[in-house]
Each structure stands twice: as C-alpha cells, then as structure tokens.
C-alpha cells in the first residue's frame, strides 16, 4: 500500500497535467491487478454517467458502454447513487445481461463511488480466477480518492492553432486546421469548408479504415493516437502524412474533441509507384473472400493506373474459361464474338476456341501483344491498341486468366511488364482461395438450410414468414434457428433462438434444441413447461454452449398468446393502427445455464391485424450500437411498414442488417378466424353412471349447437371412447367436443400412453375388442396422439344440422 500511496502522491503534485487522470487509472493496472480501469462522471445533461478516461485493454471486450443512465441498474449507476462499492462476479454478470449476449470470457467487476467535483464512479475489471482481494480493493479505494481531484479543463476552442495543429469536434465533425496543414492536403484555406469529410475524401481508400478509427469516437478509447496515412496528389504518387492526436473529454458547454498535429512523413518513404500498386493489390486481395471480390480488386488495381480500356477476369473450369468480372460491364464494349457466347450474365467459352490464349495458359507466363499483332478475332478486338494476357497461377495449376486491352496503341515498358507478372501471381492465389471460399460457403449454406424448416405450415386466420441470413464473417455455421409449430385446437407456437458461437457444434446443438422444443410442444405442454424441459435437456447434455430462446403460444381463435423468454429478445408488436410496442415479457435465464431455472409466462393480446415480430440479436445489435437502440429502431421500422405483404416487410428489415452475425426473423400477422369452432369439455368421473352422463352431456351440447341429425352415431362413438378410457386406464378422463363446418370431433384424453389397437379378427365368443371397430365404422376418420401425461383418442363424424 505504501508503494501505491507514493505513486499517487507523485502524480497529484502535477494537477495541471492533462494526463493526470490517465496516469492515476494506470495505477489500478499496476498495483490492483486490473485489466481495465475507467472513470465515469455525470454528463452535462445530468442524466448520464459518461466515460471520460480509461486505461488497459479495450472496454468492448467486456461489453462495457461509454455511458450509463444515472437511474439505471448498471453497477456504475448503483455505485454512484448508493455511495458504496458494487462488486459482481461472472455468475452475477451473466444474470445482469439476460437480454444481451454474455461475453465469452469470465471476469470480475468492481465499481467504487468517486466523491468530490460532481462525483462519479471508478470502474475496474479483473480477469484473475479469484478476482480482487482485500488489498486490491484497498488500492482501488485509494485510486478513487486520488482521481476525485478536478481534471484540467479542455483547451479553449478559439484562438490561434500551432503550426500543423488541428481541433476536431466529435459531435459535429467540424474541424479547425491551420493553413500549413491544409497545404499538406492540397487545399486552399479560403475554400476549405471546415468538414472532416472533405479531408477524409482526399485519403487513399486503403488507409481510410484506420483513419476512421481515430476520428470516430465510438471506435476508440480516450487517450493518445498516432498513425501514418496517405493523401492523393494531383500528379505523382500519394503523399505520406503522420497524425498525432489525443481525444479530450468534453467540458461544460463543450463536446469531446480530438486535438493534435499532422506532419509530412513522405521524406521517410521512397517513391516506388509500382511497388505501391502491388502492395495496394495485395491489401485488397487479403480481404477479398469471393471470386467476384477478387475480380473487383484486380480491376481497381490495374485498369485506372494502366489507363486500360477493358479488363476481363475468367476462371478456368476444366477446359472452359468462365468470365466472372468484366469492366466495363456493358455488352457493347466487348467483341461481337463474345456477345454471342453470353449466357445468363457473361460469356464462357472453351479454351481451344482461342489457340493464342491456350498457349499462354500452357506456358504460364504473362504475354503482351502490341498494336497490330495478328490474333484471332476473339482476342484482337479486346485490345486493338495492345493486349496483355495474364495467366493466374496458383501452385502447380492455373486458376484462370486476366485480359487487359487498350483501344489506342500502348507502349509496354519493362517496369509495366514486371508489374503485370507480380499482380498475376497475387491474383491467382487469391482466386483459388476465393473459389474454395465460395464452394465452402455454399456447403455451409446448404447445411444451414437443412437444419431449418423447409416450409411453413398454413395457419387458420394468420400468415407467417421467416428470413435467415448467415454471417458474412467466416465460413462457420451459425446457431440461429426459428420454427412455426401447429398445435391442436387452432393454436400455433412461434419459436426463435440463438445458440452461442459459430461452429459445427453450435449448429448441431441448434438442430437438437429445435427438435426438442417441437417434440415438447406437440406433446401438449404449456409454454413454460416446454422451455423448462428444453433447459433441463441442455443441462443434461453437459455442453459448453448455452442458448437463448423466445417461445410464443398463440390461440388463433381467441387472439391471445403466452410468451416465454429464456435470455432472448422480447417480441415486438405492431397493432392495426400502426403503433408498435416492445412486449413487456418477463424473462428467464438462457437455456443451459441454471438447472432449476424459472421461466415465467407473460400474456399478450393480439387484436385482428396485429403483427408480431421475433428476431435474433444479429438484426438489432452491433459493436457500435446498443441493443436497446436496435430494438427501438426495429419498432420504428415496423411502424412505418405496410404489413399487407409480410415478405416485403421481412426483406426491408434485412435490407440494412449489419451481417456481422447470423440474422433470423420470424413475422406473423394475426387476422382472426372467419369461422370459429364450437367447443365444450366434460370431465368424466369414475362412477357407475359415467358413460351415461357423458352421453347426456353430448346430447345437450349437440342440441344447443343446432344439430338435429346423426345423434345415434355420435352418441355411440362417445360411449365407446369413454368406456374404453374408463376400462383400460387409470386417472382422470376428459372428453372434448368440437364442431366446425358440420364436422364433429370427439376426443377423449386419459393418463395412459398406450394407444388402442385395432383387432385383426374377432370370434363370436370374444367379449371385447369391438369398440374400436365400431368407432372406425361410424367415423370419417379417427386416431390417437400423445398429450402431456397420456394420450388422446379422437374421431371425426360428418353431421347434419
């Protein structure tokens, strides 16, 4: 403790230093064993606690946000309001984030109040197995006291800027820059509009992502930044610049600002234009995952620098060249012979049709023909002023060919020949990788489709549609699933879920959970029991993965539903008047986390015309936005939609999906049933007159429904089914009568799982077995189905009214 006290005293001496708070937080990493430490203080509006400084690993690894509501349930807000430390372990954190995806790593979190200078909160995260011990907590207490000194105010936004300096307002994107800095970008200070987008538009596209990570506050933590980037010049190669900056938190009346300098770094780099082109192509091909992506990268790297008029990239499949990229894509820009071979989009032709091209592929090296060379028509018209054919090698085989043509005579220099050869090797390797990716991606998609329902059932009084999009990041199988399960008595179950991770194991578990939920639902269990059984099954499987799930049982006759959530997002309802609501459905933990978990049921009312939407978090959650904001955005999109065509609504929802994760969408529009069945039930008591009571109840019910004919056949079926249940089973017996479209359904449920068996033959002396034959003779159809705790024997008869 003496060491940390000494370090904090040494830092406190220089209270005017802009790095004082950051240096204090670093002591939590050194002396308390924290992996991450941050300071949150009340914002200007007084409603949020905002991140002003941090140290350690990125906060996104732990799902931490840059602000929390002061009245919320976050550890930061609770420590600030209560004035006492709040500590959470992995188990408590898992319960704290039921509606969000739990971070894959286990960690301990401690939040301590900061007293003085408006208050705030010190947040520390530890990844050690035992978390923070007593001495670590004492150290964090000292750090929370040291960080309470007022931080120096942000530098004024007015006044003169030092040479090469700039100041960027993070909320508006307005930038103040000196004349010498604008000169580095080739801009006239008088014409500069003060927008950061103007400066970004002059950078080399390959350097733009790293530069955007600096100028966007949501993608960076508070602190220093330094990087080099290139800006385009009117003539010659791009110019290298070096940026040094620091993000300063906003003070009272001021937004957060990025301040720093930009210097000329071109003197440290040689002017190697061809090497830069090859490097640019290598960078683009490193991120190209499909064959089409490879073609676009080759076109971008070669056509404009070489001032070519057309480029064609073709894959070699057996003995045919299949064109995958044409630039320009218009048919009129290509020879008439090529246009004859066009199929659905672009042409393909056998290699033997162009002997010159076939020879170049056999030799495996770049070939160049200047203007006026004698070539077959299929090639000469591609490049009348010069033609370059680049075989694309990949290991010991040819992946394809690239054709570059000029309309006016082109002078091929030695440097240009070397450039084409180097680019061909890079493109060939990338093309083979992309071909393997496309094939594997198609296989993954096929497997994923096999694990999901092939078609949805037709529902009385409702329509459902589904959509699924796999993640574009990698080739791993996803764990999102959905299902629409028709149930007896005009009920339907909507299920949507997400298994943790992206792997073959996640996809396998997804298939198992979907099958289990469907089996439990068909058995007739209530929604909470269905989800509880699935949770117990997943726990017994001893899997390292967990799953989230939302299960909605809808009564299509009454327009009511019960919803059960297991760590999943709630349904979003769009009512007939266009208003939307995120359902207030109480949730339970994810499946596979707690054995004795409770999954409460929440009621939903569905007036005719209501649209219910179930989605997975891949649609509403991104690394840059909060999941609550995504749900509000989804509700706004549904409110603005026209639910007449559900397919168009689902496609619109997926139109702007981030695609960093799998996305599943399940939509159902409840229209109401035009013809509602008539239903009555009777509990059969085990008394001597039980069968007679059942017949009298059936007779009274049929008369009240207006049935005047076929009484005897219906009552005989009732007698046989009830008698069979009383004689051959124990426990409770229930009879259900349903009438719809002059079709009577008699169903008798009992506690025995054994189904009645139709006898193959009956002798005249037999005393039993004729009941099933009578039911079969009098009914249009009959059968049995399993229900919770037993079975149901049913028969349907056509009646007159």
Automatic annotation (TrEMBL):
Keywords: ATP-binding, Hydrolase, Kinase, Magnesium, Manganese, Metal-binding, Nucleotide-binding, Phosphoprotein, Protein phosphatase, Transferase. Residues 462-670 form the PPM-type phosphatase domain. SMART domains: GAF, PP2C_SIG. SUPFAM superfamilies: ATPase domain of HSP90 chaperone/DNA topoisomerase II/histidine kinase, GAF domain-like, PP2C-like, PYP-like sensor domain (PAS domain). Its EC number is 3.1.3.16. It holds the Pfam family PAS_3. It catalyses: O-phospho-L-seryl-[protein] + H2O = L-seryl-[protein] + phosphate. Residues 290-441 form the GAF domain. One of its GO terms (molecular function) is protein serine/threonine phosphatase activity. Primarily acts as an independent SigF regulator that is sensitive to the osmosensory signal, mediating the cross talk of PknD with the SigF regulon. Possesses both phosphatase and kinase activities. The kinase domain functions as a classic anti-sigma factor-like kinase to phosphorylate the anti-anti-sigma factor domain at the canonical regulatory site, and the phosphatase domain antagonizes this activity. This is protein-serine/threonine phosphatase. It comes from Streptomyces violarus.
């Amino acid at each position: 403790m003496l060491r940390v006290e000494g370090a904090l005293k040494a830092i406190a001496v220089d209270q005017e230093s802009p790095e004082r708070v950051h240096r204090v937080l670093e002591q939590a990493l050194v002396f308390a064993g924290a992996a991450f430490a941050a300071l949150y203080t009340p914002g200007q509006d007084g409603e949020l606690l905002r991140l002003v400084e941090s140290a350690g690993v990125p906060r996104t690894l732990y799902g931490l946000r840059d602000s929390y509501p002061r009245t919320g349930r976050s550890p930061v807000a609770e420590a600030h309001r209560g004035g006492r430390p709040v500590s959470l372990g992995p188990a408590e954190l898992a319960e704290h984030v039921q509606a969000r995806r739990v971070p894959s790593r286990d960690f301990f979190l401690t939040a301590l109040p900061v007293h003085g200078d408006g208050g705030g909160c010190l947040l520390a995260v530890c990844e050690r197995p035992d978390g923070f011990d007593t001495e670590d907590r004492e150290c964090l207490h000292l750090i929370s006291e040291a960080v309470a000194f007022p931080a120096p105010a942000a530098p004024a936004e007015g006044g003169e800027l030092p040479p090469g300096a700039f100041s960027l307002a993070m909320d508006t994107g307005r930038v103040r820059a000196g004349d010498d800095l604008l000169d580095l970008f080739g801009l006239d200070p008088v014409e500069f509009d003060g927008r950061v987008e103007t400066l970004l538009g002059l950078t080399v596209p390959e350097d733009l992502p790293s530069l955007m990570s600096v100028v966007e506050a949501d993608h960076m933590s508070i602190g220093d930044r330094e990087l080099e980037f290139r800006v385009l010049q009117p003539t010659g190669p791009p110019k290298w610049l070096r940026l040094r900056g620091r993000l300063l938190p906003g003070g009272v009346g001021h937004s957060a600002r990025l301040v720093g300098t930009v210097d000329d770094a071109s003197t440290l780099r040689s002017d190697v234009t061809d090497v830069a082109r090859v490097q640019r192509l290598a960078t683009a091909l490193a991120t190209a995952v499909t064959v089409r992506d490879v073609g676009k990268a080759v076109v971008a790297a070669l056509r404009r620098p070489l001032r070519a008029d057309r480029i064609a990239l073709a894959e070699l499949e057996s003995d045919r060249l299949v064109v995958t990229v044409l630039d320009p894509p218009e048919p009129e820009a290509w020879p008439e012979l090529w246009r004859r071979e066009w199929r659905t989009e672009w042409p393909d032709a056998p290699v033997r049709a162009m002997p010159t091209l076939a020879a170049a592929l056999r030799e495996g090296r770049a070939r160049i023909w200047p203007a006026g060379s004698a070539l077959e028509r299929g090639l000469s018209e591609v490049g009348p002023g010069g033609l370059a054919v680049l075989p694309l090698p990949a290991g010991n085989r040819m992946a394809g060919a690239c054709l570059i043509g000029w309309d006016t005579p082109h002078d091929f220099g030695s440097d240009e020949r070397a450039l084409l050869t180097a680019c061909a090797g890079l493109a060939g390797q990338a093309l083979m990788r992309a071909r393997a990716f496309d094939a594997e991606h198609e296989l993954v998609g096929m497997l994923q489709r096999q694990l999901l329902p092939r078609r949805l059932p037709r529902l009385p009084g409702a329509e459902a549609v589904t959509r699924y999009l796999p993640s574009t990041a990698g080739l791993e199988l996803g764990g999102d699933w959905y299902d629409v399960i028709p149930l007896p008595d005009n009920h339907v179950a909507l299920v949507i879920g997400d298994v943790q991770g992206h792997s073959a194991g996640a996809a396998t578990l997804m298939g198992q959970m979907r099958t289990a939920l469907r089996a439990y639902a068909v058995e007739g269990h209530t929604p909470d029991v269905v989800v509880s059984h699935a949770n117990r099954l997943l726990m017994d499987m001893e899997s390292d993965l967990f799953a989230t799930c939302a299960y909605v049982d809808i009564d299509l006759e009454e327009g009511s539903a019960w919803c059960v959530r297991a760590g999943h997002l709630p349904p979003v309802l769009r009512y007939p008047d266009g208003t939307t609501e995120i359902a207030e459905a109480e949730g339970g933990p994810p499946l596979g986390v707690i054995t004795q978990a409770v999954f409460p049921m929440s009621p939903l009312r569905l007036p005719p015309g209501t649209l219910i939407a179930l989605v997975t978090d891949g649609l509403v959650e991104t690394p840059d936005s909060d999941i609550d904001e995504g749900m509000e955005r989804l509700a706004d999109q549904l409110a603005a939609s026209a639910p007449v065509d559900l397919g168009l609504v689902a496609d619109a929802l997926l139109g702007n999906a981030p695609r960093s994760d799998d996305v599943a969408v399940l939509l159902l529009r409840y229209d109401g049933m035009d013809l509602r069945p008539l239903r009555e039930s009777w509990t059969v008591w085990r008394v001597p007159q039980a069968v007679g009571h059942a017949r009298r109840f059936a007779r009274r019910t049929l008369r009240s429904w207006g049935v005047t004919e076929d009484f005897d056949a219906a009552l005989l079926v009732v007698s046989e089914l009830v008698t069979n249940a009383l004689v051959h089973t124990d426990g409770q017996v229930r009879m259900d009568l349903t009438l719809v479209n002059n079709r009577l359904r008699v169903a008798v449920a009992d506690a025995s799982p054994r189904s009645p068996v139709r006898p193959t033959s009956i002798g005249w002396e037999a005393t039993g077995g004729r009941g099933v034959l009578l039911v079969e003779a009098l009914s249009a159809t009959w059968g049995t189905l399993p229900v919770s705790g037993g079975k149901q024997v049913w028969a349907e008869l056509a009646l007159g009214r």
